[in-house]
Amino acid sequence: MSEPAIVMTGVTARRGAFQLGPLDWTVPRGSVVAFIGPNGAGKTTTLDLLMGLGRPDAGGIEMTGLRQPVDEVAVKAKVAYVNPDLNYIAWGRVGRAIDFISGFYPDWSSARCERLLADFDLDRGQRISALSFGARIKLSLVMALSRDAEILLLDEPTVGLDVTARQKLFSEILEFMQREGRTVVISSHQLTDLERLADQVAILDGGRLLTMGRMDELVDRYVQIDARLTAGALPAMDGVRLMARDADRVRLLLDRTLADEADLSRGGLEILARTPLTLEDLFVALVAK
Amino acid sequence: MSATVRRLVCDVPLRWLLVIALEATAILIVDVAWLLGLIIPRVTLGLLVGMGVMALGQASLKLPIWRLLPVSRRQIARARWWLSVGGPLALLVAGLAVALAVVEAMGWLRAAPVQIAALLGGECALALAIPVISVAGGLSVRTAAGITLLWAAILAALAFSRPGPFFGLAAGAVALAGAAAAYLFPRTALLDAPAPPPRRQAGAGRGQHMKGWAALLRPLLIYAAVLAVSSIGFFVVMRMAIHQISQLRDVSVAAATGMGMLALAPMIFGARIRQSARSLRLVPVSGLALSSILVGAAASVQLLAFATFCVFCRLSHGPADQALALLPLVIGAGAWVLGLTLRGWWQAIYLWPVFALISAPLVDWPPFAAVSVALGAASLAAGWWWTHFELTRGSHVYRPWPTSVATWRGR
Amino acid sequence: MQRSNQLIFGPISAAAPGALYEQVVVAVKREVAAGRLNAGDALPSLRTLAADLRVSLITAKRAYDDLERDGVIYSRQGLGAFVADGAAQRVRREQRSQAQLALRTAAHAAQVAGLSEDELLAMLKTEITGAKKP
């Protein structure tokens, strides 16, 4: 099964004044995707559309080869969704909520569910209204991971989680990935964690995909150059973005696929230092206006 | 019912079985009393309307989770139908059958078959109006309730004479036809809609240019208007649907229904306050001032809604003076309700029938006005003290309100 | 001021090799050796540097302590830190001795690899030409 896990073609959606898309995105099977972007970029809207919560105005979505919204029930049987807004409070206690949800999935594993509850410090008898915010997210995660889903859509799963829980979550995700053909899409603001965990990255800004591809390629592609102007004016070059400037000192973001340091020297710049960027710094530089 | 729909519908916790039992009892009381020719306790009629609305309210809490399950939208709509239309309908029919059997066995049956059918029709119209519109139109409960009440008000303005059994029969037929339509052709627009963006907490958003208290209290004006219209509409719907009501004195009905709703008005206000209680306590305002302002705001809402209601009563030639005597009690009860809501006992909603039960028969008692003022003042003071206690020392104020939890995006 | 401190005393990055305070030390030595910071120039105060570079006070203090130990700067109580006299020569001398140390390592490595003197010199010439290109 080498078909991609997620295929979005020309997807557009309008939510009030916000316009999402057009998005063309293919997520290969068997990858952990870091889906990042500034607040209000449309990450949650995109994940909602993938899950079938709401319809796009135009374009097609395919999840593991099944088309949304035609096969939406089959898709929901294979895709798990986690979001901090999910609220199981109508079911009173943790045990009741789990019993209800588990009845809908024939591939539910009670053993795994019990182990996850213990790992995340949850108890079946706890009242959901008494759970802390992080505990509620942990409950949603337990629901999602106890199934045998093919795709996990995690929208801000680390909000409110303490460090121990976060580490447990990542080890659970990696264990999930051990099974064949599984895909995980994580949207989070904790870029330091995602950098270690993800092998694909997609950056969404203002409803458009800025960049997508392999994580290591992205991080290697950009380098930060500290330079001094010898010629007076900064030459305009493709693949060179000015990050900061003070008199004759500049800091540039160099896209190695479009330009290299030789071009910079020819343009009258004395290179003083080159620094690799963390995903966080790269993100800030790429989405800066 | 397919297995999936059954799994969605039969997911009922123990305490809701108690509520269903309460509703079944209420229906039995209404039917038996009516068949015996007795006066019906008006409070039970409110429960009829509340049945479907409560069921839909519970379902709407679960809806965001249902949308994630491998369940088709049609199945979700069917589940909503069974919870709010099918279930209550079965309860109504069963209740009437039992009541008929009991009364006939006693030999006290006094009503003609046509009138019995009209009773059933009226009950169906009351219980099913809002849920049918919500399921058939794919609308949220709030929208459906608003539409229903609006239409009821218009119809009342058109036909404000004593309705005969024809009205009950017609209303019932329409309700049942609507129920069938909702079952066969449910619109799932509600389920296609994207989740609405989260509302801000009390005071932010629209009141951007208002500083201080104005920003917090401005939405109260809208609540007051909604309450005024709702209490009028509720009275009108009840008056139309079960024609026996029109033979009772208007004031009792007006008192029990309209005033009862006004006594609950501070609950909505209190819910908002409760969500923002932490932020309010950070503001450099003393606890005394805070509780005085909140109780005063709640009382103002009630006064405003009451004034509208009075005007309506005057215009429809109903005597409003006796209802006026209830006002101090309502304001006092409102302060209590505020304290209750802050504590988180949303079961305060069950106070309403108690309040209506006690107050309605007493309205014509001569010293009632003086008693009302005394009791009202006492409960206002007690309610104020309780609100103050909850705001300054209560820990419940800092826990989220169960039906709308503060999330990371700031609901 | 904030911008220029970041540019002159930077770059500081978690992705770059070396601890954060070492990166600050390298940056200051670079500026001193290039002549952009002259003897007697005032360095920013510890708090200002920490705020501008977004590092902790401890990191800034450690960097300044290392620089003072290496004789690149000196600090006066209440006045701040200044570039020391002869700092440029000291830094350049340090850079020269680092180059010599690297060459010593290369010579040993060449001996271990069994390279002749001519081979070694040819390799060195290639590396020199290569280093000229950025």
Q: How big a fraction of the residues of chain B is strand?
A: under 5%
Give the helix/strand class of chain B: mainly alpha
Q: What sequence of helices (H) and strands (E) makes up the elements of chain B?
A: HHHHHHHHHHHHHHHH
Beta-strand content bin of chain C = 5-15%
Number of domains as seen in the coordinates of chain B: 2
Output the number of helix runs of chain C: 6
Q: What's the CATH class of the largest domain in chain C, please?
A: Mainly Alpha
Shape of chain C: elongated
Number of strands of chain B: 0
Question: What profile does the largest beta sheet of chain B have?
Answer: none
Give the overall form of chain B.
globular
Low confidence ranges of chain B: 157-162, 197-209, 241-248, 401-411
Mean residue pLDDT of chain C: 88
**CATH arch. level architecture of the largest domain in chain C:** Orthogonal Bundle
Q: What fold name stands as the CATH topology of the largest domain in chain C?
A: Arc Repressor Mutant, subunit A
For the record, what is the CATH homologous superfamily label of the largest domain in chain C? Answer: Winged helix-like DNA-binding domain superfamily/Winged helix DNA-binding domain
Radius of gyration of chain C: 18 Å
Count of distinct strands of chain C:
2
- The average pLDDT score of chain B comes to 72
Q: Name the pair of protein chains with the most residues at their interface, and give those residue counts.
A: A-B, 37 and 30 residues
Give structural notes:
Chain A has helices at 43-51, 72-78, 94-102, 110-119, 133-145, 163-178, 191-197, 215-221, 261-266, 279-287; strands at residues 6-15, 18-27, 32-36, 58-63, 66-68, 79-82, 151-155, 183-187, 200-205, 208-214, 222-229, 240-246, 249-255, 269-276. Chain A has 289 residues and is α/β, with parallel strands linked by helices. Chain A has two domains: 6-206, 3-Layer(aba) Sandwich (Rossmann fold), CATH 3.40.50.300; 218-287, 2-Layer Sandwich (Alpha-Beta Plaits). In chain A, the strands form three sheets. In chain A, strands 6-7-8-3-9-10 form a six-stranded mixed sheet, sandwiched between helices. In chain A, 42% of the residues are buried. Chain B is built from 16 helices and no strands. By secondary structure, chain C is mainly alpha-helical. Chain C has two domains: 2-87, Winged helix-like DNA-binding domain superfamily/Winged helix DNA-binding domain (Arc Repressor Mutant, subunit A, Orthogonal Bundle), CATH 1.10.10; 88-132. Helices cover 63% and strands 6% of the residues of chain C. Chain C contains six helices and two strands. Chain C has helices spanning 2-8, 20-33, 46-53, 57-69, 87-113, 117-132, and strands spanning 73-76, 80-83. In chain C, strand 1 (73-76) and strand 2 (80-83) form a beta hairpin. The model of chain C has no long low-confidence stretch (mean pLDDT 88). Chains in contact: A-B, A-C. The interface between A and B is medium-sized, with 37 and 30 residues.
